[in-house]
Amino acid sequence: MRKTPNAGAQSDDSYRLGNRVLAELIAGIGGGAFIGWTIDQLIGRGHWGLLVVMGLGTFAAFRNIIRISTRRSE
User: Which spans are transmembrane here (predicted)?
Assistant: First the structure.
């Protein structure tokens, strides 16, 4: 028979998953903002690099969150 995890282990896994989702979101938005700002500083043309790359980072973050949430648990 298969063992079922106790409530503490289940709660621990959920906590880890929540932290991973939060880290993906912060890294996507923050990383995109930093890279976009750097591009703007090098090129010197307004804030378009910041907006575009931060948008791409946000898109990538949500794509990763959806991928994490739809993965089958083992």
Answer: 21-39, 45-66
Closest CA to 36 of 20, 58, 13: 58
Widest Cα–Cα separation across the chain: 65
Residue with tokens 């648990």: 73
Distance in angstroms (rounded) separating the CA atoms of residues 46 and 40: 7
44: left (phi over 0), alpha (psi -120 to 50) or beta: left
pLDDT digits 0-9 by tens, 6-18: 666 667 888 888 8
Report in angstroms the alpha-carbon separations of 22 from 14, 16, 19, 62, 68. Answer: 12, 10, 5, 11, 12
Q: What pTM value is reported for the model?
A: 0.73
N-terminal to C-terminal alpha carbon distance within the chain? 16
